[in-house]
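QA checklist item 7 of 12: single-chain prediction sanity check.
[x] sequence parsed
[x] length recorded as 100
[x] structure emitted
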Amino acid sequence: MNLFMLWMSGSSPGIFNVMILGYCLTSIIGQFTRANVVFQNFKTIDTTLQWMAYLALCCVSLAYLLYHMSGMGLLPTSSGDWIALIPETHIIETVGGVMK
């Protein structure tokens, strides 16, 4: 459902799109944290492969969310986004000469 919501939200960073991104981010993080609880009812059988598939789908959802955020320009991925952290260098020059 999260992937469908992200696909339908478009690529412009409006207020509703940002709210959808926030909802999807909290939902995906919640799915990661509840991974063990989801398979708690099936402790009697080996569900390692299903658990790995569940985590893989969560990772795919997170990757698509980050790709979508990057396409909107909400992730700092270019060098211009970090320009405030570049230390300013003061160059002191002295010039001497004669003008005619």
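[x] summary fact logged: The longest helix spans residues 48-72.
[ ] second reviewer sign-off
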